[in-house]
């Protein structure tokens, strides 16, 4: 059933006595814009039971006549376990949009109500022009990319996120865990043919691997490839390491940094709204845990990425809440270097009934992200998830980073992506130049390594074809 969201200016309230949900900049979400508890499917889970599959976070799905889904067990028509919210946001008056445009052009910060108005604006091209203006003020016509390799040590995972097509139980078909020697050999084989500057390492939450395994892994990779930056372990993994060791986040991060950790990816943020998070990934860390890990990392001088999973059951208000909580932490620490909206993919997971976000919806989310996150310097379009054509289009909606050449992406391909597993450097240069931009090769922390003039076409196109590893490898930004 479609719902009507209140007009953008009233989507948030400042009266704590009347508010529920997550706070953003002193604002609290109006209960009317929180996701509905359809059929009583959501029930509260104790914080420390989040990883216990026996605790559960969903009641049984009620069966009732519906054209939207069919039970896979009974064959009867049923309500799907997950449904996208079909929002009908009132079109904001012209004077509200004009005031937002004025703010953008003078560099004034946008409010939560402004963000809701942008989601309701009917003029997507106007929104793109605003985002491009904001992006140009930060990085001009530069578009960054890097030469990297993704390495995932295990897909065995205690958590059971509804959207994940990557995880396996230990012993299940397709489950794997690399030894330290195997990981080092894989990385060495890549470096022998490709001058990567970064290893991007994320993994499942393996219930039996000790923390020392990860420390030893980093140390071995760092010793074998001292010139390669190790961007490793999401905040959810750091939270997990703290749980299994009894250490604080700071102690875990100190140990990993001593072993070679250079920076952290931004995965595991998903969506911060508690009601939605409980439904799609209730078995793992809370939004507060994720933010606390990044706050700690920033305090130790460790730069990190940030993300948001979009296009599932979240609302526009949930997205604004998520963006503003990231913005608040960035105001506090300054440690985020890039924001990456991640599009939900619907194949081979428990949310396969949902349709995926369209390119136009994606463009709106990227543009609004650029406008709301005025203190995070870069916005990345992960081309392997979005498709190259869409990623190129997003350069007109605030994007200034196309990620990298990428070797062996698997998580999004296991969830239905049909993009290549890797791309040659010259193809990236062509895509960026065709959009009228200047390609710049960067390292992990956005130091410029090489600028490419329009007639600069390297003969050593990278990467060359790489053998695909057996097992289910992947990447989460």
Summarize the helices and strands and which ones pair or pack.
Layout: E1 12-13, E2 23-24, E3 27-29, H1 94-106, H2 112-120, H3 124-139, E4 142-146, E5 148-151, H4 180-193, E6 198-201, H5 211-224, E7 229-232, H6 235-245, H7 249-259, H8 274-281, H9 287-299, E8 304-310, H10 316-333, E9 336-343, H11 359-372, E10 378-379, H12 383-386, H13 388-393, E11 401-404, H14 411-414, H15 425-434, E12 438-442, E13 448-451
Parallel strand pairs: 4-11, 4-12, 5-6, 6-7, 8-9, 9-10
Antiparallel strand pairs: 1-3, 2-3, 12-13
Helix pairs in contact: 2-10, 3-11, 4-5, 5-7, 6-7, 6-9, 9-10
What does this entry look like structurally?
With 477 residues, the protein is an alpha/beta fold. It has a domain at 140-451: Aldolase class I (TIM Barrel), CATH 3.20.20. The protein is 35% helix and 11% strand. Strands 11-4-12-13 form a four-stranded mixed β-sheet, covered by helices on one side. The chain has a three-stranded antiparallel β-sheet with strand order 1-3-2. It has a three-stranded parallel β-sheet with strand order 5-6-7, covered by helices on one side. The two termini are 33 Å apart.
């Amino acid at each position: 059933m479609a719902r009507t969201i209140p007009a953008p200016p009233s989507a948030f309230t400042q009266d704590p006595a009347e508010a529920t949900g997550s706070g953003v900049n002193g604002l609290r979400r109006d209960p009317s814009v929180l996701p509905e508890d359809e059929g009583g499917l959501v029930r509260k889970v104790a914080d420390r039971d989040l990883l216990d599959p026996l605790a559960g976070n969903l009641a049984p799905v009620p069966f009732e006549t519906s054209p939207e889904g069919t039970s896979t067990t009974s064959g009867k028509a049923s309500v799907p376990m997950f449904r996208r919210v079909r929002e009908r946001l009132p079109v904001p008056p012209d004077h509200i949009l004009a005031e937002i445009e004025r703010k953008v052009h003078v560099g004034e910060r946008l409010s939560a109500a402004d963000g809701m108005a942008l989601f309701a604006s009917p003029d997507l091209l106007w929104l793109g022009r605003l985002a491009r203006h904001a992006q140009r003020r930060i990085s001009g016509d530069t578009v960054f990319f890097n030469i990297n390799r993704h390495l995932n040590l295990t897909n065995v995972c205690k958590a059971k996120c509804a959207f994940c097509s990557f995880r396996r139980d230990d012993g299940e078909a397709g489950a794997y865990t690399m030894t330290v020697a195997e990981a080092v050999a894989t990385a060495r084989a890549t470096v022998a043919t490709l001058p990567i500057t970064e290893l991007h390492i994320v993994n499942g939450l393996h219930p039996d691997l000790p923390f020392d395994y990860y420390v030893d892994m980093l140390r071995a990779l760092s010793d074998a490839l001292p010139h390669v930056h190790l961007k490793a372990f999401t905040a959810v993994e750091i939270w997990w390491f703290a749980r299994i060791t009894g250490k604080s986040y700071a102690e875990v991060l100190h140990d990993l940094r001593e072993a070679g950790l250079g920076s952290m990816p931004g995965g595991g943020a998903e969506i911060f709204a508690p009601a939605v998070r409980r439904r799609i990934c209730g078995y793992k860390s809370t939004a507060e845990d994720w933010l606390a890990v990044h706050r700690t990392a920033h305090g130790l001088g460790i730069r990190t990425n940030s993300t948001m999973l979009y296009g599932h059951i979240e609302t526009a208000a949930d997205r604004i809440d998520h963006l503003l909580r990231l913005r608040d932490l960035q105001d506090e620490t300054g440690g985020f270097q890039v924001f990456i909206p991640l599009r939900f993919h619907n194949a081979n997971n428990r949310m396969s009934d949902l349709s995926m976000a369209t390119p136009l919806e994606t463009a709106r989310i990227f543009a609004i992200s650029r406008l709301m996150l005025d203190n995070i310097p870069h916005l990345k379009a992960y081309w392997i998830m979005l498709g190259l054509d869409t990623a190129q289009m997003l350069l007109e909606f605030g994007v200034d980073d196309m990620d990298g050449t990428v070797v062996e992406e698997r998580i999004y391909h296991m969830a239905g992506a049909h993009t290549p597993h890797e791309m040659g450097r010259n193809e990236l240069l062509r895509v960026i130049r065709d959009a009228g931009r200047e390609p710049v090769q960067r390292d992990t922390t956005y130091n410029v390594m090489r600028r490419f003039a329009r007639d600069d076409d390297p003969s050593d196109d990278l990467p060359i074809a790489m053998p695909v590893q057996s097992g289910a490898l992947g990447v989460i930004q």
